[in-house]
Amino acid sequence: MHVSISGSIDRAVDNAVAMGCTAFQIFTRNPRGWVAKPLAANDIASFKEKLAASRIDRFATVAHMPYLPNLSSPEDDPFARSLGSLIDEIKRCSKLGVPYIVAHLGSHKGAGDKKGIEKLVKAFTKAAEDTEDDVTILLENTAGQKNSVGSDFEQLGFIFEQLKPARRFGVCLDTCHAFASGYDMRTEKGASDTLDKFHKAVGFENLKILHLNDSKGEIGCNIDRHEHIGLGHIGEKGLARVIRTINSKKIPMILETPIDERRDDAGNLKKVKELA
Question: Most buried residue, 46, 91, 139, 196, by CB count within 10 Å?
Answer without folding.
Answer: 139
